[in-house]
Amino acid sequence: MYETICGLIPVDPDYGERTRRLEILKRVLEGRLYDVLPYEFHEERSAAGEYIPLRSRRPSVRYPLARIVVDDSVSLVFGEGHFPTLDSEDATVRAALADIVKEARLNRVMLDAASRGSVGSVAIQLRVLRGRVFLQVLDSAYLTPCWDPEEPDTLLSMTEAYKVPGQVLATQGYVLSDDTSMYWFMRRWDTETETWYEPWPVGQQCVPAVDVTRTVRHGLGFVPLVWIRNLPGGDGVDGACTFRAAIETAIEIDYQLSQAGRGLKYSSDPTLLVREPAAMEGELIRGGGNALVVSEKGDAKLLEINGTAAAAVIEYVRTLRELALEGVHGNRASAERLSAAQSGRALELMNQGLVWLADNLRVSYGSGLLELARMVIRASNRYTLRTYEEPIPPLDVSARVGLKWPRWYPPTSEDRLRDAQTLRVLASGGTISRETALKSIADVYDIEDAPAELARIAAERIP
């Protein structure tokens, strides 16, 4: 059914197969896959009286399985209480990055990036405006990266090109000869410049002219975009889609639930069957208080659908949901199982499939987050950055930056007690340092700077 619906989506020959694939997956994520179908689910006959097959109807019930899987996994990676801490041995770098994370709202940016990138890939643009760091998430369907052949993980340039209605461009200050036509919009980033081009009409062969008014020289020495592949797999440009394995099953769920709802409506409004000859005159009003009177050879029945079929559909849909979530490593925890969990570790084991998915996302998007941090460090040596109106000194580009991820689930009071006892034994026995012990529980107690916290502890002990 998925391929059937994809076949109904118009093909734009000006875009490549990659763009089409990503746009279709985006439709699935946003719940717009069925918009291409011409009829509503309750429309059984066309205006000409012809029967409308189910494959041409939009389901009346839509279970957002793809969105649920993406939201659950993304929130487990970058949600509140799950966002990693940028750590460095250089105290200046560590403090500067912590301030930039807050002012640039990096947690919200990464949530948006991981959600959009679930189709396969995503790009994050870095901009420095008046000394402040700004980050913007860009859909990758209309982006074309160019990699350095000698450093395959380094961008040489990034090109963005897509079609825009002339009216949209006119509202942005462009002077067009015909604002009712479609135009190509294009811009390109390289290591020194963000080049904008004058829009040109679709179908017209021409060499794009540089828009000198909007072109900006950033002078950073690197392409200010981070390209993130979603999951292992995919091709050389995009990673694997988070929810691709569940699309067909999700479509089956939507149609089964829609058909079950249709059957329940028919049960509430049963169809009258009259076998002639019948001695009925005038309009028939159905109901428990109205008797049907027929002749001796006539017969009348109410065709009803019992609830057994509806219950079977619900059970079938429940099984489909379990299979789909298992296929994409989604959250299959039920309320009964959740109440039995007694610790964060128990929750982690119960949701092991979702944890595996989030673990893979940590690898992909964590690498992108580290690359953003290194870009900020390099940018601090080109521009005077500031946070909260305070200037940031040039940061050491050789400083190592890492990520400290918190636990998957918040520990209970019993978990924290056991952690404290274990760390105390390890630190007092000389197995680990007090700073390492403090860092291991810093995310639980919201400790941003472990060395500073140790200094405060030592100061409090002085009589």
How are the elements arranged and paired?
Layout: H1 2-8, H2 17-30, E1 39-40, E2 57-58, H3 65-78, E3 85-88, H4 91-103, H5 106-116, E4 121-129, E5 132-139, E6 143-148, E7 151-165, H6 166-171, E8 182-189, E9 193-196, E10 200-201, E11 216-217, E12 225-229, H7 247-268, E13 271-275, E14 299-303, H8 307-328, H9 335-340, H10 344-350, H11 352-379, E15 385-387, E16 390-392, E17 401-404, H12 413-428, H13 434-440, H14 450-461
Parallel strand pairs: 1-2
Antiparallel strand pairs: 3-17, 4-5, 4-12, 6-7, 7-8, 8-9, 8-10, 9-11, 13-14, 15-16
Helix pairs in contact: 3-5, 3-11, 7-8
Q: How many β-strands, per DSSP?
A: 17
Return the structural class.
alpha+beta
Using only C-alpha atoms, the radius of gyration works out to: 30 Å
Which residue ranges are poorly predicted, with pLDDT under 50 across at least 5 consecutive positions? Answer: none
Q: Which outline best applies? A: flat
The amount of beta strand, in percent, is 15-25%
What does this structure look like?
It is a single chain. The chain is flat, with a radius of gyration of 30 Å. Strands 6, 7, 8, 9, 10 and 11 form a six-stranded antiparallel beta sheet that branches. Strands 5-4-12 form a three-stranded antiparallel beta sheet, with helices on one face. It has 14 helices and 17 strands. By secondary structure, the chain is an alpha+beta fold. The mean pLDDT is 84. Among the domains are: 2-58, no CATH class; 412-463, no CATH class. α3 (65-78) packs across α11 (352-379) and α7 packs antiparallel against α8 (307-328). It has helices spanning 2-8, 17-30, 65-78, 91-103, 106-116, 166-171, 247-268, 307-328, 335-340, 344-350, 352-379, 413-428, 434-440, 450-461, and strands at 39-40, 57-58, 85-88, 121-129, 132-139, 143-148, 151-165, 182-189, 193-196, 200-201, 216-217, 225-229, 271-275, 299-303, 385-387, 390-392, 401-404.
